[in-house]
């Protein structure tokens, strides 16, 4: 961490950028923001919670998207649903976990501690987490992974056990990355409006650079992209 901040400080000091846009999870680094303020470098953060003053923040509202994922799986009749969440050091992981629990509660369901497992927002960590979940005698009928990369890891673990997606296991991701529509079966996921948020962050940064009046915060609606990896429970 200190080495990263020092490296970024040298970069800013040498190149003197007009401003910086910070996507998750870099946007959660308070030491980085403190350094940018000390260098009088404008910045905008894209984050899942209110980490900063409005001119410096584009809010993603990850909890809302995760709640939609819970509603989708519950409406298909799934009750034994697992969640693979990201690292606890990431605010987004907490937001998505909380939102998922809230969405399940609307259907009278609880997320069991035994079916909640932490991973690293990577493919390999998704495989390991799913290996753990799917090896249990009373395995889940559906898995919601905190991002698409971990969801694709669930595919790999399921196939090692001879499980069919979605006949034996429904799988959902989060982000709607390009890979989600390219794998087979195509992944049902929560679409995070990345392009729109990036555009808003760029406009916000230009306003800061120009010293323009603060604009109203934009809101971004998540969307469930239903593909082939989820189906109603028989």
Note the topology.
Elements: H1 2-15, E1 19-22, H2 30-38, E2 42-47, E3 57-59, H3 62-75, E4 81-85, H4 91-105, E5 116-118, H5 123-134, E6 142-145, H6 148-160, E7 170-175, E8 188-191, H7 194-210, E9 223-225
Parallel strand pairs: 1-2, 2-3, 4-5, 4-6, 6-7, 7-8
Antiparallel strand pairs: 8-9
Taking all Cα atoms into account, the compactness measure Rg is 19 Å
Figure out the total of helices.
7
**Structural class category:** alpha/beta
The largest β sheet comes out as: 6 strands, mixed
Question: In percent, how helical is the residue content?
Answer: 40-55%
Q: What is the spatial order of strands in the main beta sheet? A: 5-4-6-7-8-9
Model regions low in confidence, pLDDT < 50 over at least 5 residues: none
Shape: elongated
In quaternary terms, these chains amount to: single chain
- Arithmetic mean of pLDDT: 92
Please tally the β strands and state the result. 9
- In what range is the share of β-strand residues? 15-25%
Query: Could you give the distance between the termini?
Result: 49 Å
Write the element-wise H/E pattern from the N-terminal end onward. Answer: HEHEEHEHEHEHEEHE
């Amino acid at each position: 961490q200190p080495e990263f901040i020092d490296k970024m400080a040298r970069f800013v000091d040498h190149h003197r950028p007009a401003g910086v846009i910070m996507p998750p999870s870099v946007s959660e680094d308070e030491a980085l923001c403190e350094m940018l303020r000390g260098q009088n470098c404008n910045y905008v953060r894209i984050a899942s919670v209110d980490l900063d003053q409005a001119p410096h923040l584009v809010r993603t509202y990850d909890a809302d998207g995760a709640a939609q994922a819970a509603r989708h799986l519950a409406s298909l009749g799934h009750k034994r649903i697992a969640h693979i969440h990201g690292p606890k050091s990431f605010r987004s992981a907490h937001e998505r976990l909380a939102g998922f629990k809230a969405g399940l509660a609307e259907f009278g369901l609880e997320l069991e501690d035994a079916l909640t497992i932490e991973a690293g927002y990577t493919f390999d960590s998704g495989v390991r987490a799913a290996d753990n979940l799917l090896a249990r005698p009373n395995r889940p009928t559906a898995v919601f992974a905190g991002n698409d990369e971990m969801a694709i890891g669930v595919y790999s673990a399921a196939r090692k056990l001879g499980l069919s997606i979605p006949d034996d296991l429904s799988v959902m991701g989060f982000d709607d990355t390009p890979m989600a529509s390219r794998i087979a079966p195509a992944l049902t996921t929560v679409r995070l409006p990345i392009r729109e948020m990036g555009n808003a962050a760029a406009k916000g940064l230009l306003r800061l650079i120009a010293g323009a009046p603060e604009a109203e915060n934009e809101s971004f609606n998540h969307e469930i992209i239903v593909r082939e990896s989820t189906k109603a429970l028989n």
